[in-house]
Amino acid sequence: MDEPPEYPDQYDGGSGCWATNAMKIFCLDRHSGDINGLFTDMSVREIGLKELWRLKWNRGFKTSEPPPVWPRWMAKYPEY
After folding, report:
1. Share of the chain above pLDDT 90, in %
2. Which tens digit of pLDDT belongs to each residue from 8-37?
3. HEC string of the chain?
4. DSSP state, 25?
5. Contact, 35 vs 28, CB < 8 A?
6. Is the pTM of the predicted complex or chain greater than 0.85?
7. d(C-alpha 74, C-alpha 23), whole Å
8. Distance of CA 22 to the CA centre of its chain
9. Would you put residue 18 in left (φ > 0), alpha (ψ -120 to 50) or beta?
10. What residues does each domain of the chain span?
11. Which residues are paired to 56 by β-bridges?
12. Are 34 and 51 in contact (CB under 8 A)?
């Protein structure tokens, strides 16, 4: 399962991030614990950073697994 970034705005682009831990690309602390999400039905809404692990990103992404251990910077944000 993809792990959360160790610190806010951590980006490992160019190091095989898509193949190993793509969540770091999306889990960015831009809006006080939320990001803006555009869905395939063309709807847009705020998504809590921890909620990212509950979205069905692809057929193989397991949303039923326990959430990862949140790093200290994410602990203040609500669970979804």
Report:
1. 48
2. 877 666 555 556 677 888 888 888 899 999
3. CCCCCCCCCCCCCCCCHHHHCCHHHHCCCCCCCEEEEECCCCCEEEEEHHHHHHCCCCCCCCCCCCCCCCCHHHCCCCCC
4. H
5. yes
6. no
7. 14
8. 9
9. alpha
10. 17-71
11. none
12. no
Burial of 49 (0-12, 13-18, 19+ CB in 10 A): buried
C-alpha separations of 76 from 3, 26, 33 in Å: 17, 18, 9
**Amino acid code (one letter) for 2:** D
Q: Which amino acid is at 51?
A: E
- CA distances (Å), origin 73, targets 5, 6, 18, 27, 76: 9, 8, 23, 12, 7
5 CB burial (10 A radius; 0-12, 13-18, 19+): buried
